[in-house]
Design goal:
Layout: H1 2-15, E1 28-31, H2 60-65, H3 67-73, E2 77-80, E3 84-86, E4 102-108, H4 115-127, E5 131-136, H5 146-150, H6 158-163, H7 167-170, H8 184-199, E6 204-207, H9 215-228, E7 231-234, H10 241-250, E8 254-255, H11 258-269, H12 275-281, E9 294-296, H13 312-326, E10 332-336, H14 363-380, H15 383-387, E11 389-392, E12 403-410, E13 413-420, E14 426-431, H16 432-435, E15 442-446, E16 455-459, E17 462-467, E18 471-476
Parallel strand pairs: 1-2, 1-10, 2-5, 5-6, 6-7, 7-8, 9-10
Antiparallel strand pairs: 3-4, 11-12, 12-13, 13-18, 14-17, 15-16, 16-17
Helix pairs in contact: 11-12, 13-14
The protein binds calcium ion (2 copies).
Length: 478
Amino acid sequence: MRRLILSGLLLTSAAHAQALPSFEGQVIYQVLPDRFYDGDPTNNAGVDRSNLRAWHGGDLKGLTEKLPYIEKLGATALWLTPIYRQQAVNSFDTAAYHGYWPENFRQVDPHFGSLATFDAFVKAAKGAGMKIVLDQVINHYGYEASAVKANPGWFNGKAQCDVSRDKDVDCPLAGLPDLRQSVPAVRAALLENSDFWRARGVDGFRYDAIKHVERPFLLDLLKKDRAAGTWTLGEWYDADTGTVAEWQKQGFDSLFLFSLQAAMRQSVMGSSGLGNVANVLARSGELARPGEVALFLDNHDVPRFAQGSLFEDEGQARTKYGLRALMTLRGVPVIYQGTEIAMRGGADPDNRRTMRFEDAWTPAEKGVYEVAQGAIRVRQASAALRAGTQTLLTVPDSLSSDLLLLTRTSGSERKLAAWHGGTARKTYSVRLNRLGLQASAQDVTRTLYSGQDAKVSVSGGFLHLSLPPKDAAVFALK
Ligand SMILES: [Ca+2]
Ligand SMILES: [Ca+2]
């Protein structure tokens, strides 16, 4: 039966190969609305900015006001964590500020605004040419949601969990009231939720916790989204390339590549060699659609990228490296609010400190922002970096801990990215044929990233590189 469903989907994709929803070429900015910008103090019930577990007052009006900030950074799309009406009371001394404890899936939480302020936000974002990805919760309601008492048959109880052969799916995640998507009323309601938000003009959905959702339902949901042209981004916590590949085959356009995030945390922010990153990138051939995979340094569920260093200045320097490196890769970069200024923070909720804007930045934070903005600008100005093919070069073993090289190609345009993990400035000369690289002689060419001293040249059958410590550069290559 499952095989039949799969082959049906594959046939559908083949028949509509030109029409698949795509975000290749976009740069997504992730917003946690409560922690972004307070544009309306009249909806600040229960706000306590001294408590990371309380509401902080950010809202849709504030986000709308700050769209020019996001545009100026260079992002072209937004992912909003859930804006649904939340359970009104706290659980575990924590408010539902994060949006993952829904009470009603078709209303906007009053802390964020109303359907009218959501519509105004959509109109403003569209007017600025930005795409919108909305977070959709399909696995659970909030702990205290009224639906739990009103419709007990909608949820998995202890009995279902005990006998289940797939406890990831049928047992509550963190104790949350777990929806049984195979119950017709649940299935219908969840499908209609997607239609409801789609009709309000969103371009994509980020589906939360897909590891915990009944698969037949998920496949139906994806089929519907695809038919409607809605881009789908799945969150399978800790997904590696194989998981992303499997789900792309089954109908997701994209998943977050957690394995790359872990490797970049270890190699770019930490002191491991670049082999971790190369090992992840070497698998990109497994992906049916490598240009769609979501690439990120951090998000609201993992410690901040900059937190990987004990020292604030080092965290800032390596965040610059991480952002420059990320912008050389094939896929859809996702920048979590505040990563562009190397905000710090450990595990949740410390990784959700309220965003600070220009007037509150230190000079060092402004420096990180300028690197982020510059790297995005370079990416967006290049068809090869934005949406070209990617080839990982084979760096000799003796160098591969400190040096990662890849090319991005689109038509006759080619770029060379060089990530350097060494802690001192260094010059490398490597035979082109050792790298599997074909290149004609090229005079000394400077990096495309501004504020960086990096150079490349090609002569006598060698690639010569001069690279600053712990940084990523990108060059035009003939
Ligand atoms: Ca507010
Ligand atoms: Ca579940």
